[in-house]
Amino acid sequence: MSEPRRALLEATDLRKLYGDFCALDGVSLTIAEGEFVSIIGPNGAGKSTLINLLTGALPPTSGRVRFKGREIGGIGAAALARLGMARSFQLVQIFPDLTVIETLQAAVVSRLGRGSRLFASLAGDREVQSAALAVAELFGLASKRHAPSRHLPQGDKKLLDVASAFALRPEIILLDEPTSGVSTADKTSIMEILVGAAKQVGLRAIIQVEHDMDIVFGYSDRIIALHQGQVLADAPPDRIRADTRVVDMVIGRKRTGATGPASHPDPLPNGERKPSNPSNPSPPLGERAG
Amino acid sequence: MTGRVVLAVVALAIAALPLLAPPYHVLLMLPFMAYGVALLGLNLLFGYTGLVSFGHALFIGIGAYTGAFLTTHTAVRSLEVMLLLSVALGAAAAALVGALCVRYVKIYFGMLTLAFGMLFYTFLLKFYRVTGGDEGMRVLRPSLLGQSLDAMPKTDYLAGPYYYYSLAVLVIAAFAMWRIVHSPFGLCLRTIRDNPTKAESLGISVTRYRWYAFVISAAYAAVGGALLGPPIGNVDPTLAYWTHSGNMVLMTLLGGFASFFGPLLGAFAFIFLQDTVMSVVPYWRLIFGAILAFVVIVAPGGLMGLFTRRRVTAMERA
């Protein structure tokens, strides 16, 4: 994080009121090229509101959100996806009656702007077919590609939700609790697939909202802690871990995160199983060409 | 593969019917084919986009009245012109109605389409100078492919050239719809049916695609309406009445909205069942209500669902 890199997503002084209730109060943040940023905070800290503002789903009461220099407040999910920001959902969102491959094809069709091809054959569109298959392979879903999405196990549904967002080849992706509702054993494998895929498709930044502190500390370059609608801290993981206020108010005093207590033999403070070590100078997404 | 064989056999049977069956049953096939076209359109909205319209009789009415108006008020007798103008007017009306309706879903969408349907019904009823009011309007015998066939006896005309003309329209309409539902566009509609929030997040503009589907389905309904007029010889406002919209939904449910050919089977079953039941008891609506309840409870996939389910279980056993 030594030299300043180009800001992809910039939020300045965001405020959001729901009636009298102030959900976000003066939040500013910047996501730069090559970053993996986690947003943490207790329930009611304003994480969901922040996501809704960052993804253009809701307009802010005041303040602005800029993506690649463009104001995106309230422009809507579809327009934002076309601009290059994709998202996955906390509660898994799939198309129950579509197969895995059809789901990915839909994303590719959308990316290529071919949705208005009324009489073209989808089966005969080689570009769509091969691009969808490539994403399925990347996420380890190729063997299940003809299964209806509703029949997938929960972990695969979660992967499919994320995979379809990746199929848009976005520049930035926002993952809303990518491992929630998944068994502890599956969490790491999901994250590994995800980070590997990010390198392959040339993603420029990842933002995630996550409760599992193992995941948060294991993968982030930077952590933004929210508390009561305000940014409590915005720093690399090692400094967050040293910040007593954040530990008290957000993370909790238990050795690791709130979600997976006894099941982690190797608690995070040792920093041993972290794929992207903060002391490592190379940016985690930086391997991609261009 | 078996599907193609079945389809070919059915198509041949329909084509050979005028040679084999008594004229009465041949004539019953005419509304089947007209409704078949309309239901292919309705099901693009219902089965593929997840929107149930209770106002599609509006577009049937537009098609039927377009034909009637042309033959009685102008010198135009060509069925091709009638069909093309029906498509244009049906699509134009749907562009306006749809722009207001597709922002809503579920019951709100259904109620809005119902409201517009009733608006048009009232228009047909009250503006009798243009529409003939409750008596409706005559439809003079249209010429087919530039051939005036006025000299033919009526039954010969309907069971002969008109029958094959309708069949050709149905086949073309079905082929075009088959392409549509198997296109990238069709896939986008299915994503919207399954999960509009997710579809939107993938960059698919939900309201825009719903609007496209609405306009296409209305154009199909208008073609169906235009085909429905000549066999009756007279169009009246009941064509646009809400129970008529309801019948279309019932036909779709009866055949199965989850399958491409389900609505066609539904239209066929509906028309022949109605004819049989009406000849036995006067209370055909009572019987049909019971049938509808039975279908929804016992076979939510409709008649087509019974076939495909059997096929799926057979495949699973194998």
Shape of chain A: globular
- Strand arrangement within the widest β-sheet of chain B reads 1-2
- CATH class designation of the domain at 7-85 and 171-182 and 200-270 in chain A: Alpha Beta
The helix/strand class of chain A is alpha/beta
- Anisotropy-based shape of chain B: globular
CATH superfamily annotation of the domain at 7-85 and 171-182 and 200-270 in chain A: P-loop containing nucleotide triphosphate hydrolases
Class of secondary structure makeup of chain B: mainly alpha
Distance between the termini of chain B: 16 Å
CATH topology of the domain at 7-85 and 171-182 and 200-270 in chain A: Rossmann fold
* Largest beta-sheet characterization of chain B: 2 strands, antiparallel
Largest sheet of chain A: 6 strands, mixed
Strand content of chain B: under 5%
| Uncertain runs of chain A | 255-284, 286-290
Keywords:
heterodimer; A: 290 residues; alpha/beta; Rossmann fold; six-stranded mixed beta sheet; four-stranded antiparallel beta sheet; globular; disordered C terminus; B: 318 residues; mainly alpha; ABC transporter involved in vitamin B12 uptake, BtuC; two-stranded antiparallel ribbon; 2 strands
